[in-house]
Amino acid sequence: MKGIRRLAEHLDISIGTVSRALNGKPDVNEETRRRVLEAAEHLGYVANQSGRALRKGSTGVIGFMMQTGREITGQGDIFFMSVFDGVQTVLARHKLDLVALLCSSEEDPDDYLKRMVARGFADGIILSATRRHDARLEFLARHSIPFITLGRSLTDVGQPWIDLDFEGMAEMSIERLVRGGHSRIGFVWPHGDLNLGYVFIERCRIVLARHGLTLAEDCIFRATPNEAGGYAVARQIKDSGEPPTAIILVNETLVTGLYHGLEEVGLRPGRDIAIIGRQSPQARFLSPSLTGFELSLRDLGIALAESLLSTMPAYGDLYPQVVRRKLWPMSLIDGDSG
Amino acid sequence: MKGIRRLAEHLDISIGTVSRALNGKPDVNEETRRRVLEAAEHLGYVANQSGRALRKGSTGVIGFMMQTGREITGQGDIFFMSVFDGVQTVLARHKLDLVALLCSSEEDPDDYLKRMVARGFADGIILSATRRHDARLEFLARHSIPFITLGRSLTDVGQPWIDLDFEGMAEMSIERLVRGGHSRIGFVWPHGDLNLGYVFIERCRIVLARHGLTLAEDCIFRATPNEAGGYAVARQIKDSGEPPTAIILVNETLVTGLYHGLEEVGLRPGRDIAIIGRQSPQARFLSPSLTGFELSLRDLGIALAESLLSTMPAYGDLYPQVVRRKLWPMSLIDGDSG
DNA sequence: AATAGGATCGTAAACGTTTACGGAAACCGG
DNA sequence: CCGGTTTCCGTAAACGTTTACGATCCTATT
Lengths: 338, 338
Hints:
The structure is a homodimer.
Chain A: H1 3-11, H2 15-22, H3 30-43, H4 49-56, E1 61-67, H5 70-73, H6 77-92, E2 97-103, H7 109-119, E3 124-127, H8 135-142, E4 147-150, E5 161-164, H9 166-179, E6 185-190, H10 195-210, E7 220-223, H11 227-239, E8 246-249, H12 255-264, E9 274-278, E10 291-294, H13 297-310, E11 325-328, E12 331-333
Parallel strand pairs in A: 1-2, 1-3, 3-4, 4-5, 5-11, 6-7, 6-8, 8-9, 9-10
Antiparallel strand pairs in A: 10-12
Helix pairs in contact in A: 1-2, 1-3, 6-13, 7-8, 9-10, 11-12
The structure holds a DNA duplex.
């Protein structure tokens, strides 16, 4: 005898009543409910996930899809750990659990997601590493799975999203650099089809044009979004015919490598070349100190969760005032690098 | 009509046969199997997770339990991502999926695990952040859930584990430092009850004793295992009455902060104080270069997965030669810091 | 031609829940 | 004391699979 049946037998009560008691249904005597809850606690009973999910059609689980192998995502788990923390504080209010759906670097993300959805793994999904054209969005929309993306995409199916305000970042960094006398501004573009690179560079072009400047194509450096990628960029800069006098990094993972690489080729950030990037725990200890954009990852996670919940039938009415799409603000922290 | 029933109807075949065809059972005509597989592919059918799990009693999912909020785990950035990658290459061979079970920093890890297990979430579990005394091990053993720990524990229930070879690290670092003339050697001990700190420091004491030396209690510095923690240690070192001439870091996340902190208090690694730590993508770009221990995280993940599978009834015979418990070797990479 | 045995498939039970439905008791106002 | 309402609980169906069992057809052997 296992599961709810055992509990029911132990209490000499029908399993129906036990289930109702545990699920907080109204039509159960408060005294019985107390006894059931107590016995459940005592026997360590927790409803079996599969049985419950099969009957209810929902799992009580939210999935956060991310990709393993750091060349792809460009975000270390420092980034995600903090976001998770925020997401979880919201989910905990509704007894929802968060699991990370880990897509191997050897599997196609679209296939992976399809598999997880068809399995009925999660009630709602948070997608990261949003690509410029992302078939996952269409798939989820077609199957009407509640989801939200961390990052925009050209593929728009009306889903909510939250994205870092790369436009604002472009505005502020370009304005600052132009004001500082720079006219030849470079940009490091992470490999892959992530949308953020496009968004950022498009706005850069606009802002530059406002000042009668253009973005030199040979000042766009492609790199894998990790330390080694940043390191490699330094040499590209040095070897380019006419090096930029300033560099903007849209990723936070490149900067340590870039600093080191620049030092090797004899360029000092803030003196020989201006650097504007993203703040991070590691960046705090760079020398010269980094000029870069900062944001609250935990709050971002909270917003993600609330926005996702607002699209879910069972929770939607609890978050009526929530903004479904939002550019997440970043603030520029002055440093000595640019 | 949904699920397997739809598929069966579409093919005009019973659902039993469809299921058998999909699961590779022998008693099904090869031609029928081909048709079923084709139709499944075409209709995008994937067996519902809950139904299958309910009937089979297994989910096809391996859970990697980790804790969100970096103050606790002490493992940064690339660490988990790379381990995951290794784990997944093994699991993929058996059509098993890996998900990360994310325990919020606000929830008790023991409770969290119990909940996940009772739910029947995963067929096997990999535990990280193993504590010196860890009730999770007893719980899993009592319920005979296959699992492995990344890290040893004093709580021994016969489970397999893989742990970094902190003893070897202690031997090599102490020997090296003593040979270099150091007699006052400090150690940074990460906060929390993680077992690795104890293991390391115990062996340090033994090796020191071999040379007639002792570990000064006031040279043991506690720190949160992240950049800020390392930064704080620098000041503790400066302010201690008789500062150590060498410091060993057992975490890889502290080192950038420590470097920065030391610079502020006027101590240069390798000249004023020797530093031995752990290599990492960030550490590659420190100056002076770090003397530290390196390991292959991906291979570690592979070993974890193989060892876990060897304890699982369904896969055990496939990995007969696998070592169930292993100290994972690390090699010392020379740098200028110590 | 009769029979044994293999190949292939359909049927139905089972997995552990939740919940619609209905029934029994208790209560209440007139 | 009676009809109606409320409170509480038991019964059984349903969720989507897998699989033991048995039935049917076909082939080969005697």
